[in-house]
Amino acid sequence: MIGRTSAALAAALFIASAVEAQSVPSPLQHFGHEIGEDRMLADWTELTSYFERLAASSPRVVVDTLGPTTRGRPFVMLTITSPENHARLDELHAIQMKLADPRTISGTEELDQLLEDGKTVVLITQGIHATEVGASQMSANLAYRLASSQSESVREILDEVIVLQIPSLNPDGLQWVADWYMEHVGTAYEAAPLPWLYHYYVGHDNNRDWYAFTQDETVLTVRDAHNAWHPQIVHDVHQMGSSGARIFFPPYIEPWEPNVDPAITTAVNQLGAYMAAEVTAQGKAGVVVNAQYDAFSPARAYMHYHGAARILSETASARMATPVTISPMDLGPGRNFDASRRSWNFPDPWEGGAWHLADIVEYQEAGAMALLANAAKNRRFWLENFYGINRRAIDKWEEWPDYWVIPGGQDNEGGITYALRALTMADVEVHRAQTAFTVSGLTFPAGSYVVPMRQPYASFANTMLEVQHYPDLREYPGGPPQRPYDVTAHTLGYLLDFDAVAVDGTISATLSEPISVPDFVFRLPDHLVGSEAPRVALYKSWSEPMTEGWQRWVFDQHDMAYDTLHHQDVRRGALDDYDVLILQSESSRSILAGHDADEVPGPYAGGLGMEGTAAVRSFVERGGRLIAIEEATEYAESVFELGVENVTEDLPNTDFYIPGSILRLELETASEITQGMRDEVAAWYWRSSRAFDVDDDRIRVVGRYGSGDPLLSGWVLGGHHIAGKPAILEASIGAGSVVLFGFQPNYRAQTMATWPLLFNAIRK
Asked: Which end of the chain has the smaller Cβ count within 10 Å, N or C?
């Protein structure tokens, strides 16, 4: 009798669920076209209204607005799980928080109950790069399937997994790209490049912000998704170039950052391989693993230091929503595989042909569903693995010191506050010593900051405070260096100009409770404030470089007065109203010519050209100051015929290679550009940086790369080529001057150590 009643109840629930599913609007019903249809893009307004309809019609879906984006749009997250899990979401959240911090678990009995009752938490983030349009479009299909499907596999996912879906990490860019694309569909400019950054400040670099936390969207995601839930799995959905594999899943290639727990590495390997197997089994060709992407920089992998497996998927692109045709002849070698050949990590090559947005959406959805199926079927594994990672952090790795100490009384209070904000925003526990103390034979004053290394997120603290020693990896023995996917150094003490000391032993001082996230106050130097401040223009081409956007962000945070000028402004005489013109790192060709007329509509084509260059020359000769950074120094050299050469320009990368490292910079302290600074600081050097030879009596050397071995953190091949070479130059031109920075003084808003050099250079 009981069995019959249970069966009847189950049947009734199934019928009710089926009726409910019929009321959930499909993407076709809402958008009026299938997701992935050629030459159709849903914009952010349309997508958010669809998610609201899903939440209103399905008890599986809740939509929350986490806050405003940089430009004021709603930044939303969907929570998708079974109605039964929604009803006990607070309880499930409490379980997750306990597993994230084993110090709060009373013992084996409580742990067993938590592992029995908890759910796998999966965060899916989409659309961080707005021109990679597939992921945010696919988000509607994925949400609909989870909201409405009655399949056994989806029901298992809903029962065993809490899905947190952020359908766009960059809603502003999504809206701009969709508007721009749809405006030009069917014209000569269909799929033309957006003539401004697709994130207001940082463009493509918005997924390089995951330890500095500068952008509003990063902060919202870290605070209200990562830290609020501490997911076991994060799926970061991207696109890549068109002429290689159709989709990438981990394992990653070498290197892994050494502070990442081995259980994260192995979990990533097994989950990525599972996804690849599932997608390949569906008959989708062109799936690759263990290629292209490494797992070194924490700027792209916040979750690796917070107990979670990061699954990056990268799907081949079309021209936004415009299909492309790829010839088999265009398929060739990539990093660690060849797209034209079968191999163990690329077992079913795609043979070329037409590639549509619908293909991108289909591959991405298949990958996401495979990930969720794994998270559901292996729920117990994911919870146990997560707990074990956090348990080992609390027990402390042998390689870690007992404490990191940031000594009190250092001059650069701003740099310390910037670092403390990064650490505490990442949930690292930082205490302040109430009394002086001695440990490891060193005495530290009261007010010093102490980071105990027996805590859940000690790995984040260690990787941010220690020096990086990036391995010397080659394409083959004795061959050229294997290019890191991003950069090789991130030591906060060098970037922000403060000391941090690793110590072992017992600290006997009275320590405060963990400090809260401090407010960082950006302060301009006095000469840039008030009516006597120079009038500053920042050149902003229609092929805007990310360095210019990062520069705007720093200026805006300081409430600094400046204007951005396009080439049309310079040509018509706008420089007459300014004292300083800044050219952030951009090639001479791009500054001069910009986009070709057949690439973008007329107002966005062109560059300074001869007319704008003549205006720049006149501006300086009449008393203005031009500041040119990295690549832009070549433009300044040619305009003013400076006797300057880049000493590394013709060196092969087997002789000289710095893909993103921190170097010693020696300063001539007599210059106004170095006013108030020590005679040595750390500088950021990467692929677009320069070191100079000078043969020009008009030029004064203001700073040089460190003599001997200039490397402080990261990876350098052939450092002797730039050791002692000029890095900052100042030239007198007529009544004005030109300042050349061979390195980037504002690398991703992180190099506070060299901000003063740029601010000092901005003078009348």
From this structure: N
Cis peptide before 518 (omega within 30 of 0): no
CB atoms within 10 A of CB 647: 17
Q: pLDDT tens-digit profile of 325-380?
A: 999 999 999 999 999 999 999 999 999 999 999 999 999 999 999 999 999 999 99
CB burial string 96-113: b at 16+ within 10 A, e below:
bebbbbbeebeeeeebee
pLDDT of 12 higher than 80: no
Q: Reduce the DSSP state of residue 619 to 3 states and report it.
A: helix
Contact by Cβ (8 Å): 702, 730: yes
The Cα–Cα gap between 703 and 553 comes to 25
Closest CA relative to residue 120, chosen from 376, 459, 451: 376
Cα 129–Cα 130–Cα 133 angle in degrees, nearest 5: 105
Question: Three-state SS for 558?
Answer: coil
Q: Residue 280: phi, psi to the nearest 5?
A: -65, -40
Spatial distance between the Cα atoms of 607 and 596, rounded to a whole number of angstroms: 9
Token pair, residue 747, equals 């690398």
What the chain holds in terms of domains, given with CATH numbers, is 29-394 (3.40.630.10), 397-503 (no CATH), 526-761 (3.40.50.880)
Residue 388 near residue 380, CB atoms below 8 Å: no
In terms of Cα–Cα distance, which of 584, 578, 512 is closest to 543? 584
Sign of the Cα pseudo-torsion (740, 743, 748, 753, in order): negative
Alpha-carbon distance of 434 to 416, in angstroms, equals 17
Q: How far apart are CA 535 and CA 461, in angstroms?
A: 40
> What secondary structure letter does DSSP report for 672?
G
Write the CB contacts of 67 (distance below 8 Å, at least 6 apart in sequence).
75, 216, 220, 224
The DSSP code for 263 is H
DSSP secondary structure letters along 116-185: HH--EEEEEEE-SSTT-THHHHHHHHHHHHHHH---HHHHHHHHHEEEEEES-S-HHHHHHHHHHHHHHT
Beta bridge partner(s), residue 450: 405, 431
Q: Do the bridges between strand 233-240 and strand 120-126 make them parallel or antiparallel, or are there none, so unpaired?
A: parallel
Closest CA to 717 of 478, 493, 496, 465: 478
Helix (H, G, I), strand (E, B) or coil at 429: coil
> Contact 328/340 with Cβ under 8 angstroms?
yes
CB 42 within 8 A of CB 31: yes
Q: Is the peptide bond before 545 cis (omega within 30 degrees of 0)?
A: no
Using CB atoms within 10 Å of the CB of residue 377, give its burial: 0 to 12 exposed, 13 to 18 middle, 19+ buried.
middle
Strand partners, 333: 338
42, 137 contact by CB (below 8 A): yes
Does the pTM surpass 0.90? The reply is yes
Residue 614, token pair as written in the block: 């003549």
One-letter amino acid for residue 152 of the chain = E
Rounded mean pLDDT, 686-699: 97
- Residue 579 φ then ψ, to 5°: -105, -30
On average, the pLDDT of the chain sits at: 96
48 φ, ψ (degrees, to nearest 5): -65, -35
